Automatic annotation (TrEMBL), chain A:
The lineage of its organism: Eukaryota, Viridiplantae, Streptophyta, Embryophyta, Tracheophyta. It comes from Kalanchoe fedtschenkoi. Keywords: Hydrolase, Membrane, Mitochondrion, Mitochondrion inner membrane, Protease, Transmembrane, Transmembrane helix. It is a single-pass membrane protein. This is Mitochondrial inner membrane protease subunit 2. It comes from the Eukaryota. GO terms for biological process: protein processing involved in protein targeting to mitochondrion; signal peptide processing. Signal peptide: none annotated. Pfam families: Peptidase_S26. GO terms for molecular function: serine-type endopeptidase activity.
UniProtKB/TrEMBL annotation, chain B:
Its main location: mitochondrion. This is Peptidase S26 domain-containing protein. GO terms for biological process: protein processing involved in protein targeting to mitochondrion; signal peptide processing. Keywords: Hydrolase, Membrane, Mitochondrion, Mitochondrion inner membrane. It is found in: Mitochondrion inner membrane. The keyword Membrane applies. PANTHER family: MITOCHONDRIAL INNER MEMBRANE PROTEASE SUBUNIT 1-LIKE, PROTEASE FAMILY S26 MITOCHONDRIAL INNER MEMBRANE PROTEASE-RELATED. Heterodimer of 2 subunits, IMP1A/B and IMP12. Residues 31-108, 120-161 form the Peptidase S26 domain. InterPro entries: LexA/Signal_pep-like_sf, Mito_IMP1_subunit, Pept_S26A_signal_pept_1, Peptidase_S26.
């Protein structure tokens, strides 16, 4: 009797902890693993290896920004791919609604970002699948903003907002 | 000796006090976490209003239940009514009907107020075509094109208010 209720108490404690942890990572802050080299050298740089084996960065993703959907140019965001909703990508916002961007692969002229959309590009433009390929994406696809690198330990630090000036088309 | 006893007395009191204070807080926290998980992963009540889904959903606002499972699994099919984050304003969630999914051909009346002229297009990979049931007054895919599947927030399946219309929802009207 006694051991049974103790077991139940312990189970309940773990359940509560799990419930709270799940809610926090769903609503407020989460840790995500970065795969691929599209954000290199900011994330997953080439020299990022541990005993010869390349390791993936882990980053902190904050989700408060989803209350208002207010973003700035230069924010690094996680979004679900417009081609497959189960896949998440990390890219940098380089233009917001109303801005003009040049997209040589989509059209010959510059295009204006429509209302409620943004333009995302990887830091490593040589190997990045981004808006240059599928055009502007709706802001509603964004799932969070990347703020810090938390792993590996030697690269822990905040990610600064970087504005790629050269990509903006002056009006 | 007395000091140590007093210290122990304080410590015990503090432990009891903190246990008494923490327990209700934990109950409330657990309740809200449970609420969050059910409403984001299972089912949530929504108030849907506006003219775009007439006659299926009333102008003044019906309360409906939306389930989150099929949106997450990717099993939303043509004919389903979905809650979808508006591609024009991410703060708004709108109710529309999916008329075609990726790879399907879709016919639509581009400007129903002016002509019956039909246009045809193919929905690209990972996208859906959404339309309001009231094509005369609806901002949908006919205006902004196919939308990514990732914007779907849930599938509306049951009407709970007004009570005389209580029942399943989401089949294509004949």
């Amino acid at each position: 009797m006694g051991s049974g209720s103790q077991l139940w108490n312990i189970t309940r404690k773990y359940m509560t902890a799990g419930l709270i942890a799940f809610t926090v990572q769903d609503r407020y802050i989460a840790v995500a693993q970065v795969q691929g080299s599209s954000m290199s050298p900011t994330l997953n740089p080439r020299e990022n290896s541990f005993i010869g084996r390349p390791t993936n960065d882990r980053v902190l993703v904050e989700k408060w920004c989803l209350e208002k959907y207010k973003f700035s140019v230069g924010d690094m965001v996680v979004y679900s791919s417009p081609e497959n909703h189960k896949v998440r990508h990390i890219k940098r916002i380089t233009a917001l609604p109303g801005d003009w961007v040049g997209a040589p692969t989509l059209s010959d002229t510059v295009i204006q970002i429509p209302e409620g959309h943004c333009w995302v590009e990887g830091d490593n433009s040589a190997s990045s699948m981004d808006s240059r390929y599928f055009g502007p994406i709706p802001l509603g696809l964004i799932r969070g903003r990347v703020t810090h690198v938390v792993w590996p330990l030697q690269r822990v630090g905040a990610i600064e907002r970087k504005v790629p000036r050269s990509k903006h088309v002056p009006l | 000796m007395a000091v140590r006893d007093f210290g122990r007395f304080l410590w015990q009191n503090f432990r009891e006090f903190s246990r008494d204070a923490i327990d209700p807080v934990m109950h409330v926290a657990r309740f809200f976490c449970f609420l969050h998980i059910t409403s984001t992963r299972l089912v949530t009540p929504v108030r849907s209003e506006g003219p775009s889904m007439l006659p299926t959903i009333n102008l003044t606002g019906d309360y409906v239940l939306a389930e989150k499972i099929s949106a997450r699994l990717g099993t939303v099919r043509p004919g389903d009514i979905v809650l979808i984050r508006s591609p024009q304003n991410p703060r708004n969630i709108v109710t529309k009907r999916v008329t075609a999914v990726e790879g399907q051909r879709v016919n639509f009346v581009a400007k129903p107020k002016e002509s019956d002229l039909c246009e045809t297009t193919v929905v690209p990979k990972g996208h859906v075509w959404i339309e309001g049931d009231n094509i005369y007054n609806s901002a949908d895919s006919r205006k902004f094109g196919p939308v990514p599947y990732g914007l779907i927030q849930g599938r509306v399946f049951w009407r709970i208010w007004p009570p005389n219309a209580f029942g399943p929802l989401g089949q294509r009207p004949e």
